Amino acid sequence: MPATVLLVEDERDIADLVRYHVEKAGMRFIHAVDGGTALRLARAEQPDVALLDLMLPGLDGLEVCRQLRREAATRRLPIIMLTARGEEVDRVVGLELGADDYVVKPFSPRELLARIRAVLRRVEGTESPAAARAAGALRVDEARHAVTVNGRSLELTAKEFALLTALMRVDGRVLSRDQLLETVWGYANAAEVESRTVDVHIRRLRAKLGAEARRIVTVKAVGYRFDGEA
């Protein structure tokens, strides 16, 4: 089955451009021009990835992102935000709400397709699930995509889960931001993406881990490592 791409965009020219390149790449395209329609389509069509403009009539893109992450049926839907160049604050807020990535307008169709494919590769996964991993009160079961702290289940987004498992797999070695962008986001050329993307997701992950957040250690000017002995 071809991947389904949901575009949430009220500018017709942009929608037509994205439709052409998505369908040319062999993917199925569905389109919403406002936030309410986007939520209905996401529930009904179960797309593989959503491209979400921030400036929308009615519900704006940030509120749509918030609601998608709140509902069980759409919580793990990969979201790529489409943002104007001057909306840095909104980009950061969007990442904190659970968006997986962003593309700045005006964007090239080639770049957008690369981001879509990277997200789809990450979701499909190429590695076989490992056995459950544990450190202190933290338990991670990759096969079940489950994380608990002191027996309490945590609701992590797909990117937060991927970051945590990527760090745990390397047994305390440091992973740079570029390595995490390549491993978790699937970017072969990580230089094109702001390292802030990693930092925002790490901050969100730490907030959810509570006391176990101390295990994710910042290595100044390099990246992050997981400390199983902390």
In short:
The protein is α/β, with parallel strands linked by helices and 230 residues long. It is 41% helix and 21% strand.
Topology (elements, then pairings):
Blueprint: E1 4-8, H1 12-24, E2 28-32, H2 35-45, E3 49-53, H3 61-70, E4 79-84, H4 88-97, E5 101-105, H5 109-124, E6 133-135, E7 138-141, E8 146-149, E9 152-153, H6 158-169, E10 175-176, H7 177-185, H8 196-209, E11 216-219, E12 223-226
Parallel strand pairs: 1-2, 1-3, 3-4, 4-5
Antiparallel strand pairs: 6-7, 7-8, 8-9, 10-12, 11-12
Helix pairs in contact: 2-3, 3-4, 6-7, 6-8
Explain what you see:
The chain has 230 residues and is α/β, with parallel strands linked by helices. The protein has two domains: 4-124, Response regulator (Rossmann fold); 133-226, Arc Repressor Mutant, subunit A (Orthogonal Bundle), CATH 1.10.10. Helices cover 41% and strands 21% of the residues. The chain contains eight helices and twelve strands. The chain has a five-stranded parallel β-sheet with strand order 2-1-3-4-5, sandwiched between helices. It has a four-stranded antiparallel β-sheet with strand order 6-7-8-9, with helices on one face. A three-stranded antiparallel β-sheet has the order 10-12-11.
